[in-house]
């Protein structure tokens, strides 16, 4: 867990320099409304960072026609990939500079948005990407930056950070600065409805993890508690619907709202051990982030159940639990409710990739990440992480801790 001086320093930073939220356009047609804002601001040469699937399936035709009709000269960069590297950013940056782009619009998943964030900053800061990596390294204001997420879960549309791997070292580099927060985001269900069910579930459970880790963080604030709780409510109500009925626009929009709220909450407060363990598991076995979190989450809830009993009980009552039941019973019901949501959305109980011989290193690195970065409610020991990993390898969600 974060040392006390760092936790207080972070708290002071968040209090005196609060994280800004982007403007939000929501519902069918939100993308066009966002583009109207760009036009009204006088931007005529946007760089559109997106993925080829959206272009090839004509998903962006209405936006491109709208911008062309208003004499916009759109430069398209569709070379972003999952787990992007400096190479992708440098290719997009060259397009931005060569075409004298005056703004950046990201339409895609978390990787596309991360690449676009760094392109927007690098376009106005004449430094190498290595110099831009790190905390508070953005000196000049980035190009005006707009976002349309096409997966609901990463929260990248609202966060102040991007993760890009160094092409040479393959190490993930974190770019963290309030200037990475977009001007505006469009939560457009028309662009979300084709997300496959298994990805809908995985990224939705990632959003749930963001919300729960923010809600139980020791660096929480009144607004992060409120946004995290609302995100949790929306996810329990609408994620199963979005999973079962991909074309249900209301469910898609509500899950996108939940992702946005959870993204804001964890950016300001903190993540926790689910992410600390998940990052190491994904680094070892290349497992998808959302799915890995979804599988780890029930175990970490059980680890935190005693110390977070009041938090879990409040959430359980919000979700319809019996308010006359005692706190520990409600907390237990909440963990079962999360298991049920995972089952309802097809999240498996185990990860077959896990190998016993890796547990020690995964645990060591997870504890180090949490120590550096997260205001967790209760400190884990190495054997706790190893128990969690073992429970995942045998597919038992109901692990019990001493
Ligand atoms: Fe996450």
What does this structure look like?
This protein has 2 domains: 19-191, Rossmann fold (3-Layer(aba) Sandwich); 197-394, Dehydroquinate synthase-like - alpha domain (Dehydroquinate synthase-like, alpha domain), CATH 1.20.1090. It is built from 16 helices and 9 strands. Strand 7 (161-165) and strand 8 (172-176) form a beta hairpin. It has 402 residues and is α/β, with parallel strands linked by helices. The chain is globular and about 65 Å long. A 6-stranded parallel sheet has the order 1-9-6-4-2-3, with helices on both faces. A 3-stranded mixed sheet has the order 5-8-7. Helix 11 (273-285) runs antiparallel to helix 12 (289-304). The two termini are 20 Å apart. The protein binds fe (ii) ion (FE2). The site of fe (ii) ion has 6 residues, from helix 8 and helix 12.
Output the keywords.
402 residues; alpha/beta; Dehydroquinate synthase-like, alpha domain; 6-stranded parallel sheet; 16 helices; 9 strands; binds fe (ii) ion
